[in-house]
Amino acid sequence: MKRFPKLGRLFGFTILGAMLGAVLFGLYLGWQVTREFAERGWDTPARVYAAPLELYPGRQLQPANVAAALEHLGYTRIANADSPGSYSVTRQMLDLTSRAFMGPNGLRPASFFRIEFDASGIRTISDESNTPLAIAVLDPMLIGSIFPDHGEDRIVLSPDEVPTLLIEGLKAVEDRRFDNHFGVDIRGIARAAWVNIRSGSLEQGASTLTQQLIRSYYLDTERTWSRKIREAFMSVALELQKDKDEIAHAYVNEVYLGQDGARAIHGFGLAARYYFGRPLGELQVHQLAMLIGQVRGPSFYDPRRNPQRAKNRRDLILSQMAAFGLIDSQTHDAAVQMALDLAPTNTNGGYYAGFLDLVRRQLREDYEADSLESKGLRVFTTIDPQIQAVAEAAVHDQLEALQAARPRLDAAVIVTTPQNAEVKALVGGRQPGFNRALDAHRQVGSLIKPAVYLAALESLDISLASLIEDGPIDVKLEDGSVWSPSNFEGVGNGEVTIARALAESLNMATVRLGMLAGVGHVAELIARLGLDATPSAFPSLLLGAIDLTPFEVAGIYNTLASGGFREPLRAVRAVVDADGQILQHYRIEIEQAAQPDAVYALNRALVQVMQRGTGRTAQRRLPAGLTTAGKTGTSDDLRDSWFAGFSNDHLVVAWVGNDANESIGLTGSAGAARIWSDILADLETRAFAPPTPSGVADIWIDYNTGLATDSDCANAALLGISTRDIPPPARRCGSERVRFGSRIRRLFDGSSK
């Protein structure tokens, strides 16, 4: 009998110890959660923005064009454009109210603009007081972010940026007693258990918003009793230390709401952009309801993969919002009739993988990865979303058309503006992953020939009207072997003008000219035009035996398009920190890479490529009167199809091939040129018309003989000729062939090997 008091005391000590342990455990968890919550600052990835849409009198846009651009920016069309992010349009007038935005030049407030049009484009722009304006600059599109390896991305919202309806809707759907419980809802647990028992399935859960937040912050998703106990203790501890508004605000910024490839969408701020292309504050009731519905299962209710399931969930949320008096019956009835209204995946919350890859690489020259991934920087870039959309559509449409009976094709595209070397669009391929625009080193073929002709124009006493022999040539190599290149057609053309040799991409004439100019000179010039290192000076370089990326090709051709002035291609304009302070402006860096008069002459010859030579098919696909300069490129065995060319305002480089480096059976004009012309035909661009440098005259030359002729002659070609090299006139239109090229022929006599 004496044993029982001892057992009682032992039992009592055990209970007391357990209670004390629970208290200590609870105190420890409380200390942990409150300390970490107080110290928690979200890793805010760098936000990346496109170039802003600029509207000005004289710009060749019509109301439909501007409206399409505004829709791409996530603006809403309404009857009276009096709220930020809205517009209204009539036949010849468009009103809009821009969003406020903190850019590299400070805060740009929300502003009203009235735009009037005529047949030629924008006629006038005025503000709300009818004062004429020279330009209207809109808020730039958010195109993505630079997030860390764990893939977590969010837009952190301040409390005043969160709609009250969102908070109240979350409470009604996820945690009806949020304002009254202490972190764990005992009544809710009992209610959910009863519903689940009656239904025989898991119909309801009982996790409070606080518990969901704790789970996202600190715990894994493993369903164990130990995790649930820790979750309950930590939720109570958090509720004892923080008020309800702080917890709700943290939840709005933290909750997981979807997956965009490797990027995890956290928080309602980013989710609004990702799903609807708009800031959270601009969403309508049906859109807020859909986001609330994502909380329960972002994958299960993914509106892009399961639209009907997402709509059913949204409509249920709307019914609950109406039942709790958050919206009236009229608003409910209108909302359930709305479509999901999802934004295209590459609109405003989208992710331009290829271009962002370039942005990252350029930023990493100046910033550590941690700064880019967690410090809330804002990066203002050069991309034009409309041009990017045009480029992507051209790649998709033309590859589909070319795909039949060929190995799987892929493509890369770079679009720049020669005046400032800004990258306006970049397509790295059909699918994200390998960025062919930046990393695919492929043989360029005849795309390199303009450098050969430019080297000759710089160093030899010749002009585009000079004659050269396009016939067999043997070149002795260093190892004693002989290289005997031939033309694509297998036959020579005899004596031809320099302009014709380039326009028709004649191999034998090109090698003959390059050997005279010096292969070393050609290699050095290629580097000056846009490479970081001088390529090996083998004779085969003259016909494009060099592997370059589309980005490197764009750098070379951008230098040609800008008149011989080299600027590194850039994707970033400025970087601003989280407080709005400018950290860096990426300014233009220009150096003269080639003689302007020689570049001008070369570019005139590249116009002839488009009008008479290998680019004429591409030129015919462009609008009438749009003069361009360009060049085809085809590698050995038809493995790579290239086209590079420019108007006055845009340079486009296109490549078509496949990752296995197999023959695709396409020349430059049959493959890449089709993508190139589709893009340029859809751009707002002007004809190529460079200013004529001093000492150079635009002369009409007979394309075949090299003699001066009249503009109305059948073979007349307008070429840039040095005023000291103007050829004698032909007696009649191309009827007599005067041996004007005898001087250059003598240079080759006995020296072709």
Mean pLDDT across every amino acid position: 87
Fraction of helical residues: 25-40%
What's the CATH class label of the domain at 145-336? Mainly Alpha
Output the number of helix runs.
Answer: 24
Please summarize the sheet with the most strands.
5 strands, mixed
Output the strand order for the largest sheet.
Answer: 11-1-15-25-26
Poorly predicted runs: 735-753
CATH homologous superfamily name of the domain at 145-336?
A: Biosynthetic peptidoglycan transglycosylase-like
Molecular structure report:
Among the domains are: 47-140, Penicillin-binding protein 1b domain (Penicillin-binding protein 1b fold), CATH 3.30.2060; 145-336, Orthogonal Bundle (Penicillin binding protein transpeptidase fold). 38% of the residues lie in helices and 18% in strands. The protein has 24 helices and 32 strands. Helix 5 packs across helix 7, helix 10 (307-323) runs antiparallel to helix 11 and helix 16 (449-459) packs across helix 18 (507-517). Mean pLDDT is 87; it is low at 735-753.
List keywords for this structure.
alpha+beta, Penicillin-binding protein 1b fold, 5-stranded mixed beta sheet, Penicillin binding protein transpeptidase fold, 24 helices, 753 residues, disordered C terminus
Topology summary:
Blueprint (H helix, E strand, L loop, with lengths): L2 H37 L6 E4 L4 E2 L7 H10 L3 E2 L8 E4 L3 E5 L3 E3 L2 E3 L3 E7 L2 E6 L9 E2 L4 E5 L5 E3 L9 H11 L11 H14 L9 H10 L6 H17 L2 H11 L1 E5 L2 E4 H10 L8 H10 L12 H17 L5 H8 L16 H11 L5 H6 L3 E4 L3 H18 L7 E8 L4 E6 L8 H4 L2 E2 L5 H11 L7 E4 L4 E2 L5 E2 L10 E4 H6 L3 H11 L1 H12 L16 E2 L1 H12 L3 E2 L5 E5 L5 E4 L5 E2 L3 H16 L4 H5 L8 E6 L6 E6 L4 E7 L14 H10 L14 E7 L13 E7 L19 H7 L5
Parallel strand pairs: 1-15, 3-4, 12-14
Antiparallel strand pairs: 1-11, 2-10, 4-5, 5-8, 6-7, 8-9, 13-14, 15-25, 16-17, 16-30, 18-23, 19-22, 20-21, 24-27, 25-26, 28-29, 29-30, 31-32
